[in-house]
Amino acid sequence: MASSTPEESRSIDDRCTPDALLHTAPAGDISPEDLVMAAGRDVTPKSLDWARRKLETEGSAAVEKLLP
Q1: Angle at alpha carbon of residue 58, lines to 56 and 63, rounded to 5°
Q2: What string of H, E and C letters represents the secondary structure of 6-61?
Q3: Smallest Cα–Cα separation from 32: which of 19, 45, 22?
Q4: What is the pTM of this model?
Q5: d(CA 48, CA 13)
């Protein structure tokens, strides 16, 4: 009986996705609406103000902190 390594015995769905494929970079500028939605908040005047301030101080890194 041939033995298999743990890697071989896992199904293709159980394998980890390479880290480089999990991270996304925005293709363009991040809008306040994008940041609000990435944070899981409702788009309201108050949340848009929060997002504008965050983007002014942190730039595109603000969304990178929220998304993988």
Answers
A1: 105
A2: HHHHCCHHHCCCCHHHHCCCCCCCCCHHHHHHHCCCCCCHHHHHHHHHHHHHHCCH
A3: 45
A4: 0.60
A5: 38
Handedness of CA 52, 53, 58, 62 (dihedral sign): negative
Distance separating alpha carbons of residues 12 and 34, to the nearest angstrom: 33
Alpha-carbon gap, residue 62 to 56, rounded angstroms? 9
How far, in Å, CA of 30 to CA of 24, rounded?
Answer: 13
In tens, the pLDDT along 6-63 reads 555 555 566 776 766 655 556 678 899 989 998 999 999 999 999 999 999 998 888 8
Residues 6+ apart with CB under 8 A from 33: 43, 48, 51
- Helix H or strand E segment including 63: helix 61-64
